[in-house]
Amino acid sequence: MQQDMFGQGVTLQSPQALSDWNSAMMAFLAHSAATPGHLGATLTQEPEFALGQAVKGLFTLLLGRRELYPTAREALALAEAAATGAAITPREQSYIHALAAYLDGFPMKSVQHLEEVLLNAPGDALAAKLSHAIRFVMGDAGGMRRSLEALMPSYGPGHPARGYILGCYAFALEETGDYARAETFGRRGLELCPDDAWGLHAVAHVYDMTANAQGGLTWLEGREAAWAHCNNFRYHVWWHKALMHLDLGDYDTALALYDAEIRADKTDDYRDISNGTSLLSRLELDGIDVGDRWEELADLSMARTEDGCLIFADLHYLLALIGGGREDAMSRMIARIHRDADDGQTEVDARFAHPGVSAAHGLEAFGEGDYTSAFSHLAAARATMQDAGGSHAQRDVFERLTIDAGLRAGLLDQAGAVLQERTAKRAGRNDGYAEARFEMIAKTRRIPAE
Asked: Could you report the per-residue pLDDT of 381-406, keeping only the tens digit for each?
C-alpha cells in the first residue's frame, strides 16, 4: 500500500499509477478538463483499484445524465468485485458505499458515507470536495459550511489542497450569507492555487449578491487563466461575467458572451443548458429580443424529458422547451415530473415533489401568459426552492420570473414583498433588476385607475 499526496493509504501498486491518481485528485479540485484523462490512466494501469472505480462512478453521477447511470453501476460492480478480491481500507469501502447510496437515489446518504471518511481522515481533500459537490447539487448550503468548518484545522499551510479547500469554504460562506468572509477566503485561496476556478467564482458570487456588478467585472478581468483550463465549468464563469454586464444594462456584451463563450460549444450538459436558459430568460424579462437562440437549447432539451436525475436540471430544460415553443415535449416533461413526485421513494423524488411540481406549473403558466397562475405556483415553490440545488445566483432566475409574473398580473403588493425578500438576501442592496422593478411598482401606483 502506498500513500497519496494527502497522506491517505491507497491500494495502488505502481508508482506511476499513484502519480496519475494524485494528478486526478488535484485536477478534480481545480475543475480541470484533464480530470478524466488522469483517472482513466490510473484505472488502465490498475483496473482493480476499488477506490478509483468508486470515484469514477461518483464523478459520473455528478454529471446528472440518466444515460450514464449504467456506467456508474458498472463502476460500482468493479469496485465491489475488487473489494472482495483484495484487502481494502475502511476508507475505500466508505467510498463504495457512497456510490451505492447515490445510485439508489439517496445523495445525502452518500454524503454521510463521505463524512464518515472525513471523521477519520479530515485531510482527505477528495472526500471533502465530493461531499461539497453533492451537497451543492442537493441545495445543502448549511451542510457545506458545517462540514468545511469542521475540516479547516486540517488544512494548514503545508496541505497541498489548502487553497482549493479555502475556495470551497468561500463558496459555502457566500451561500450562507457571510459575504465579507467569503470574499476574504476566496481571494486567499486563489493566491495559493491560481487555478482555483471555484474559489474565483465564489468571489464573483459575492459581487452578485452584494449588487456590485462593476466590482465583479473588475475582479474577473485579467484572471481568465484561473478558468481557461476548466471543463465545462469555464462556461459558467463566463456566464457570471455576462450576468454582470446584464445588470449594468450592457445587453449587447451579455449576448456577445453568450454566443462567443457560454454557448460557443453546443453541449448538452445540463449545467451548460442551465447557463444558457437562465441568461436568455433574464434578457427577455428585461425586454431584450434574443432572436432564435432558444432553438438549439430546445432541440437539446427535447431529448431530456425523461431524464429525472435532478429537478434543477429539469426546470432549466423546461425553460428551454417553453422558450422554443415545444409544447408536446413540455407536457411530457411535466407529466414525468409528476410521476417522479408521486413515486416518492427517494431523496431525488422528494425534490421533484417540492419544489418541482409547483415550479414546473409556474413556468408553464408563465410561458402561456397566465401570469396570475404563474405567480401562484412559483410563489408556492419558493419555500423549498433551495432544495432544487444550485446557487442563489442560479436560482435567481426563478425569483425574477416569480416577481415579473406578479407584476404582470397586477399583484403589486405580493410581487413587491418577494422583491423585498430578494433584496434582504442580497445584503439589503438593490441590483439593476431590483431597481427597475421597484420603479415599475412605484410608477404603476402613481397612475390613477380609470
From this structure: 999 999 999 999 999 999 999 999 99
